[in-house]
Specification:
This protein is mostly helical. Helices cover 49% and strands 7% of the residues. The protein has a domain at 57-111: Winged helix-like DNA-binding domain superfamily/Winged helix DNA-binding domain (Arc Repressor Mutant, subunit A).
Length: 111
């Protein structure tokens, strides 16, 4: 965009169609900010990053609800950013979570 285009946009005599602009891929460390993996940095990404730093329990509950009430340990570890050992410790401390004999983690809310 040239300085002339910027001046026209600022004065209101020219409209810019942002849909025509090509979406650029995430570069460098921007991929680390894209928490939900959709290729765009949005407010949802920042919300998920804040949750990862503070408390993994809401992330676990949200993930289990998204997965239909049950998920594997690998999925929960990926979503929370915790190791398997850390994730198991958090799951053991949660009262509304049970582990199936086959290894699935089950959300007991609503059952």
């Amino acid at each position: 965009m040239t300085w002339e285009d910027i001046l026209k946009v600022h004065c209101g005599t020219h409209k810019v169609d942002y849909e025509d602009e090509e979406e650029k891929a995430l570069t460098g460390n921007q991929k680390r900010i894209d928490a939900d993996g959709d290729g765009k940095i949005t407010g949802e990404d920042f919300r998920q990053l804040r949750e990862k730093k503070t408390d993994p329990e809401p992330i676990i509950i949200r993930t289990l609800k998204k997965e239909g009430g049950a998920a594997g340990l690998d999925v929960l570890c990926k979503e929370t950013g915790l190791s398997k050992k850390e994730c198991k410790a958090v799951l053991d401390s949660m009262k509304n979570i049970k582990t199936h004999k086959d290894g699935d983690i089950i959300l007991m809310d609503g059952l």
